[in-house]
């Protein structure tokens, strides 16, 4: 097991719940297994995963375990609840090597009967005036996207509804619209927003309430706009969210869930209970983006996913083998993740 650090500048600053960041830093993990070298990525994002220091300590400890133990021992040393990014890094490298050894792309390692060339993806539009928001969505539609997520919650409900209405009037009924409130609303504001967004045919509102209010989210369901949970999955098990009937959609981030295997298992469990999975990144480098893409590709009839985030990085760890055309991302059909571990470069 080999771990190298990296730091990649963003093309523009990224605002998170805790801070605004200008770079993404993490670790590339390489692991030899079954005669193949697999590559993984651990890119922690505080507020979603462990800190960078905790991630590095966990990977250092795992490297010590690897000196005398096998991959099962390493996985047991990496707790998905406390160090999900570190576990994601190793788990991805292990799965990449496994799929390479089996001679299949990673998504077919999850489901050998699957054949998937493209995964639908959404565009994301930030906060802005009604005209600015509609212009941005219109540009995305012109670029081929037929699903757009609009950030809401920083303005009043009146202003956000006006923004979405302007978008809908501009692009028509054939574009799927989603809204993402990032937990900004109270129960009263969320109920008002959903009541007024329903006639605008908004597919779902992502995280309308604070993350810990599962009861409130459950009460918002059934009023014409779906409820999607994202931040609520950071500090609690997916099972508890499903048991609370709190969501129509789960936003699954493999980096937050401890690896692509965990994310795929949870996606299929949600689907069995009538809850739709949507796979997204945490603004990761190419290795983790590919892992998330393969998770999505292994889910039959998956909805548009938040995977088209490579342009948020000014530089990357390696050339991206995927393309986005007509609102869908191509899925590599070569073995493993679809990227040569030798081409992954770090600053270590």
TrEMBL record:
<feature type="active site" description="Proton acceptor">
    <location>
        <position position="253"/>
    </location>
</feature>
<feature type="active site" description="Proton donor">
    <location>
        <position position="151"/>
    </location>
</feature>
<dbReference type="Pfam" id="PF13378">
    <property type="entry name" value="MR_MLE_C"/>
</dbReference>
<feature type="binding site">
    <location>
        <position position="180"/>
    </location>
    <ligand>
        <name>Mg(2+)</name>
    </ligand>
</feature>
<dbReference type="InterPro" id="IPR041338">
    <property type="entry name" value="OSBS_N"/>
</dbReference>
<dbReference type="InterPro" id="IPR029065">
    <property type="entry name" value="Enolase_C-like"/>
</dbReference>
<comment type="function">
    <text>Converts 2-succinyl-6-hydroxy-2,4-cyclohexadiene-1-carboxylate (SHCHC) to 2-succinylbenzoate (OSB).</text>
</comment>
<dbReference type="InterPro" id="IPR013342">
    <property type="entry name" value="Mandelate_racemase_C"/>
</dbReference>
<feature type="domain" description="Mandelate racemase/muconate lactonizing enzyme C-terminal">
    <location>
        <begin position="130"/>
        <end position="227"/>
    </location>
</feature>
<keyword id="KW-0456">Lyase</keyword>
<protein>
    <recommendedName>
        <fullName>o-succinylbenzoate synthase</fullName>
        <ecNumber>4.2.1.113</ecNumber>
    </recommendedName>
</protein>
<dbReference type="InterPro" id="IPR018110">
    <property type="entry name" value="Mandel_Rmase/mucon_lact_enz_CS"/>
</dbReference>
<dbReference type="GO" id="GO:0009234">
    <property type="term" value="P:menaquinone biosynthetic process"/>
</dbReference>
<dbReference type="InterPro" id="IPR010196">
    <property type="entry name" value="OSB_synthase_MenC1"/>
</dbReference>
<keyword id="KW-0460">Magnesium</keyword>
<dbReference type="GO" id="GO:0009063">
    <property type="term" value="P:amino acid catabolic process"/>
</dbReference>
<feature type="binding site">
    <location>
        <position position="230"/>
    </location>
    <ligand>
        <name>Mg(2+)</name>
    </ligand>
</feature>
<dbReference type="GO" id="GO:0043748">
    <property type="term" value="F:O-succinylbenzoate synthase activity"/>
</dbReference>
<comment type="pathway">
    <text>Quinol/quinone metabolism; menaquinone biosynthesis.</text>
</comment>
<dbReference type="InterPro" id="IPR029017">
    <property type="entry name" value="Enolase-like_N"/>
</dbReference>
<dbReference type="GO" id="GO:0000287">
    <property type="term" value="F:magnesium ion binding"/>
</dbReference>
<keyword id="KW-0479">Metal-binding</keyword>
<dbReference type="Pfam" id="PF21508">
    <property type="entry name" value="MenC_N"/>
</dbReference>
<feature type="region of interest" description="Disordered">
    <location>
        <begin position="325"/>
        <end position="348"/>
    </location>
</feature>
<keyword id="KW-0474">Menaquinone biosynthesis</keyword>
<dbReference type="InterPro" id="IPR036849">
    <property type="entry name" value="Enolase-like_C_sf"/>
</dbReference>
<comment type="pathway">
    <text>Quinol/quinone metabolism; 1,4-dihydroxy-2-naphthoate biosynthesis; 1,4-dihydroxy-2-naphthoate from chorismate: step 4/7.</text>
</comment>
<comment type="similarity">
    <text>Belongs to the mandelate racemase/muconate lactonizing enzyme family. MenC type 1 subfamily.</text>
</comment>
<feature type="binding site">
    <location>
        <position position="206"/>
    </location>
    <ligand>
        <name>Mg(2+)</name>
    </ligand>
</feature>
